[in-house]
Each structure stands twice: as C-alpha cells, then as structure tokens.
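Per-record layout

source: Rhizomicrobium palustre
name: Large ribosomal subunit protein uL6
length: 177
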Amino acid sequence: MSRIGKKPVALPKGVTASIDGQTVKVKGPKGELSVTLVEEVAAKLDDHGVTITPREGFDRAPQMWGLSRTLVNNLVVGVTTGFSEKLEILGVGYRAAVQGKTLQLQLGFSHDVNYPIPEGITIVAEKPTSLTISGMNKQLVGQVAAEIRSWRSPEPYKGKGVRYANEYVRRKEGKKK
C-alpha cells in the first residue's frame, strides 16, 4: 500500500479539475496544466478531490500509484502558487543578466552564454549573482535550473560556479608543497 497514493489530492477554492480517460486537467488562477497518467492507475473525481487508485492485473500498479498522485498534486500546486528555484553565481567576473527573452551569462568563458528562456518560465536576476527561476510546471522549472547550472557547475577547490541556493559544496584542500 502506498502511503502517498492513498491520500486524495485536495482542490482548493478557485481550482477545478477534469478527468478525460487517463488525462487529468487542472485549471486555477495561474493557468491550466494537464498530465496523462499511465494505464496502471485510474483517476476519479469526487467531493474530496482527485483520488488515484491502482488497477488490478498490473505488476507495476503499486509503483506508479504514488508517482501518479504526486504528479496530479504538482499540477494543483503549480496552478495555485507555482514553483521557484534559486541559483547563486560565485566567481570573479561571473554574472547574469536578463535581456528580453534571453538570459545572458558571463561564466569565465571567452564568450557570453546566451540561454533562451522557455515559454512558461520567468527568470529574475535580483543581483548579478543571484537568479530566481519560477513557473507553473515543476519539471520545467527544475530542468531550466539544471541546464543553467550545467554551464559551470561548482568546483570543489575554490567553490566557483553556479549552484543552487540551498546546495552545500564540499570543499577540497589544495596542493601541498
């Protein structure tokens, strides 16, 4: 039994959900999102919210039960509050700036890195060394943050690079004489 899967996904005020086969659509104040669930689970809309149940006869049903419930919950959270990820840029001369639909990064290369901002994502540079990525889709927000971090991930000797705000970089000792 899945502890997560057993709980119904509550729908707050102003949020409506509709189920069409295996597709769950959620509409809220920030917009509309949808997810197509795997065939091993069934979604049902009732007065408590959206309930996910595993179907009989599938070996993978217990594994997909909790995942499917979490995907539907992420839709509800996304259309009500949204998701955000904070990135910090550390290094001499490393900085970022948002120019229209492009994020311009200076990360110690001989050239600037221009990253086109995807549709549905908002990137704000509060300081030249601090970025906030926000949007409705949790997967897309995390993917954009990971792509930006991959240009210059933090290195263990000086700690330079792009890191998540809550990330701890384990430092190494330098060379000995």
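summary: The two ends are 59 Å apart (CA to CA). The CA atoms of residues 12 and 53 lie 21 Å apart.
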